[in-house]
Amino acid sequence: MENGSLYELLGVKSTATTVEIKAAYRKKAMKYHPVSKNPNDPEAHAKFQEIAAAYEVLVDDQAREMYDQYGLDGLSGGGGGPGFSPEDLFEHLFAGGSFGGFGGGGGGRRKRRGSDSTIPYEVSLQDLYQGKTVKMQIEKTVVCATCSGSGGKPGTKPKQCSRCEGEGVIMTTRSVGGANVGFARIACPQCKGSGMTIREKDRCKKCKGEKTTKEKKRLELQIEPGMPDEYHIVLHGEGDQEPEMTPGDVIFVLKCKEHDAFERAGADLLAHVRITLSEALLGFSRVVLTHLDGRGIRFDSRAQEGGKKIYKSGDTVVIRGEGMPIWKKDAPRRASGAPVEKGDLFILFEVEMPDEGWLDTVDVQALRAMLPPGKPDLQASIVDEAKFEPSDIALFGDGDDAWEDDEFDETEDTQCRNQ
Ligand SMILES: [Zn+2]
Ligand SMILES: [Zn+2]
């Protein structure tokens, strides 16, 4: 069983809060309850036990931390050796009693893997377009160099942990909904599962018996041209170190900042360009935007079929090959390292209407004569004069009490999930 599967059993994310875990457990336990729901279904019974065991671990902060860090091994105190399937473990976790021969502490402890550190890293769209090498310094935990992670002075021997009597694990009683459902084994918090502690006077001077120290470490982050937003750059083995543990990874998650001029969707870019009424009617040729690498992009509205085109707000053109580099691990690249292929650049035009003051500066009669004429009346037998005020289209339908907002939201949710 993979690390993380206790969360899957309950159907929650690994970031779930205790409240979410409790709610998920209640829902699942109701579904699989062997007495009330599934009296003759041994599978449902087993499932019910698994769910309860998963809940016991995840609802307990200490047990959950051990599980997150060490997986099921953290709960079985380094058992997990040959002959112990996850089902066995659950049985021991859940059934109550019969701990004999399980784990037994000490011998054959498997090398654990440290947890990964996930660090969000904010980047600009320019950086994702052009690529960037970021040098940074992080503080990380390393195995103490003075005592090589023993925590003791040279020549001293650690003694058996008093809390777990050298077993590395302790048992705790657990109850679900007030009923005692058995025992759980968690790694001993006093010796962190090692079964050994060091006398105060024997402790290493450098790490004070902690076995690890903090150290500044330089890291280099390669942001490649075209990398997607939310991309995970994994630096293998750069996570915190613990004795007898394979360090986890440091994972940088790219978070793209919003850009003033461009929106990104995959390899495509979108820019909004505002043009004047005169430009919309009569055409224009000018540098309309600055690309992410600083190049100006000239746009000649007459450089298309017929040469005449009146632009309306919402009109769109596409410039092929001026989008983001198409980033793939094995994409063909230029000497600079940037992928050869690029997506497209869409331009969405918006026509700026002149403000009212402009009318005072022109001959309105002459202008009216030049512009296309107004429209005639619609035919109607009764005509009322409109009394109106400025408004906002967002208010359309707002005054209608017949809408039940909550119900409406729920329907929407369901539809989204089903798509
Ligand atoms: Zn030390
Ligand atoms: Zn202990």
Write out the strand line-up for the largest beta sheet, numbering strands in chain order: 12-13-17-16
Summarize the biggest pleated sheet. 4 strands, mixed
- Span between termini: 31 Å
CATH H level of the largest domain: which superfamily?
Urease metallochaperone UreE, N-terminal domain
Q: Report the uncertain regions.
A: 77-109, 410-419
Q: What CATH architecture of the largest domain would you give?
A: Sandwich
Proportion of strand residues: 15-25%
Which percent bin holds the helix content? 10-25%
Bound molecules: zinc ion
Instruction: Give the helix tally.
Output: 10
What is the name of the CATH class of the largest domain?
Mainly Beta
Measured on Cα atoms, how large is the radius of gyration?
33 Å
What does this entry look like structurally?
- It is a single chain.
- The protein is of the alpha+beta class and 419 residues long.
- The protein has helices at 5-10, 18-32, 42-59, 61-70, 72-76, 86-94, 125-130, 277-282, 364-370, 405-418; strands at 112-113, 117-123, 132-143, 159-160, 169-176, 179-187, 196-197, 212-223, 232-235, 245-246, 250-256, 262-265, 268-276, 285-290, 296-300, 316-319, 345-352.
- It has three domains: 5-104, Helix Hairpins (Orthogonal Bundle); 117-158 and 198-256, Sandwich (HSP40/DNAj peptide-binding domain); 262-358, HSP40/DNAj peptide-binding domain.
- 23% of the residues lie in helices and 25% in strands.
- The radius of gyration is 33 Å and the shape is elongated.
- It starts with a helix and ends with a helix.
- Bound molecules: zinc ion (2 copies).
- Residues 144, 146-147, 151, 204, 206-207 line the site of one zinc ion (ZN).
- GO terms for molecular function: ATP binding; Hsp70 protein binding; unfolded protein binding; zinc ion binding.
